[in-house]
Amino acid sequence: MLKITVQIGDITQAAFDAVVVNLFEGVSAPSGATGAVDRALEGAISALIADGEARGREGEATVLHTLGALPAKRVVVAGLGKRERFGIDTVRTVSAVAARTLRRLNAKRAASIVHGAGIGGLDAAAAAQALAEGAALGLYTFDRHKARKADEPTQELEELVLLEQDPARAAALQAGVERGLALAEAVITARDLVNEPANILSPIALATAAEQVAEEAGLAYSVLEPWQMKELGMGSLLGVAQGSSNEPRLIVMEYFGDPEHPDNNVALVGKGITFDSGGISIKPSAGMWEMKGDMAGGASVVGAMKAIAALGPRINVLGLVPAVENMPSGTAQRPGDVVKAMNGKTIEVDNTDAEGRLILADAMCYAVGEKHAKRVVDIATLTGAIVVALGHVATGVMGTSQRLVDELLGASRDTGEKMWQLPLFDEYKRQLRSDYADIKNVGGRPAGSITAALFLSEFTGPAEWAHLDIAGTFMSDRVHGHVVKGATGVPARTLVRLVERLAADG
Ligand code: BES
Ligand code: MN
Ligand code: ZN
């Protein structure tokens, strides 16, 4: 990953391949560091502004050659957008765009001022954190299976130096950078797992990847095999798994940040369908490839656990990932089959493509029944219906604990990963009534995301529970700011932030 360091110094005196300064929209005479660089360049930046070439629009990057007027070879003027819209999320975007511009210029070592920490009025540590997140995530590529690499830069950006004039600020900036890089690493871990195809990332391979993360991070790791799931009565999970020749695994990662208080805990349960063909209720072939990412919830849990271990909050966190492949075959479960979950409830499998809720049911029973989770948050690419409701902009939040939902919404505002709540009114429950079992796994077309969540609520026991439906947000089809094409890594950063907030409250 990109190396980011903090140095005290003057940007006009710094010898780098390129230096990054910034500009608000509507400013004609730049001040601060941008003003100093402008003066050293004998007004070249002001001239570009006057000619309308540099407008300071958010996401704009204007490149100037210094031709010996500065020790740095090039200057990148990064647009900050309108001052009244400027915030911490703008810093992530601007930093990502600047970093990609530096890569395109084949810069190896570059320096940047900390956007927002000066006239932007942001807290120095928070600005440095957002800058680190934006740069590290904006440069993300997944090209391990390609001979010709994306963008074909002849030189990767190796080091970004944050230049600050005021020595009193260095410690805060350094702390912000470290937090930002830890969070970026969580997201990158998640993205890599989601982008990996299902022929490589089987349930067992996902478990091996999680084990490696746990080992490096110092987390406890264990895994349940099919015979153990059978003993525990996980008939709902095993029903989904039975169609695939790839065996399922239940991945268990544990962080003990408050060992004296075992009840001060939260479980993060991530859907880990390594491929969702739909099973016997098979999906149409167009776009089915995206279902290699149907373990995005699980991937975000693995990534978040890594950052949680690095940041060390005072709370115990259980990370669970039921890893299963949903395939049609002669051994696959059929529509109409009745299975029994770990809590004894029977389920009529009306549609084998509503498999996520079936594996999460048993995983949550395990979290509450065996691991005594007091709070449970599940994360899942659960329903196409959430894309109809919220598009690709926001993750759906539902839950039986408004307190936990509110903490999630608060964490989401902290990270910029947008979330929006949907209701779980009792009136929707009748859609899940079955003639043959305690409950049916689908509730028909109306309010599909809500009935899916209500199904899950039957398996949370006495725990406080909230649910994130990320089917609309786990992948992106375009580059925008720190989000690149492909897996987004959502909501890894928000999960880390949630855990920190719960630790502070408890
Ligand atoms: N993994 C899918 C949901 C999904 C859809 C995720 C699009 C990402 C993008 C899930 O397992 C599924 O198939 N859900 C069905 C449920 C239906 C059968 C009740 C759906 O949404 O169509
Ligand atoms: Mn499905
Ligand atoms: Zn699925």
Structure description:
The protein is of the alpha/beta class. Helix content is 35%, strand content 20%. The chain is built from 14 helices and 20 strands. It has helices at 32-40, 44-50, 88-104, 124-138, 170-195, 203-217, 226-232, 235-241, 296-311, 356-369, 385-390, 402-415, 448-457, 492-505, and strands at 3-8, 18-24, 61-65, 74-81, 109-112, 159-164, 220-224, 249-256, 265-270, 272-276, 316-326, 338-340, 346-348, 375-380, 395-399, 419-421, 439-440, 464-469, 475-476, 486-487. The strands form four sheets. Strands 7, 8, 9, 10, 11, 14, 15, 16 and 18 form a nine-stranded mixed β-sheet that branches. Strands 1-6-5-2-4-3 form a six-stranded mixed β-sheet, sandwiched between helices. A three-stranded mixed β-sheet has the order 12-13-17. Strand 12 and strand 13 form a beta hairpin. 55% of the residues are buried. The mean pLDDT is 97.
Rg, nearest Å: 24 Å
Whole-Å distance between the termini? 34 Å
Name the hetero compounds present. Answer: ligand BES, manganese (II) ion, zinc ion
* Overall strand count: 20
Mean pLDDT: 97
- Helix residue percentage: 25-40%
The total of helices stands at 14
The biggest beta sheet is recorded as: 9 strands, mixed
Shape estimate: elongated
Structural class: alpha/beta
Q: What is the beta-strand fraction? A: 15-25%
Sequence stretches where pLDDT stays below 50 over 5 or more residues:
none
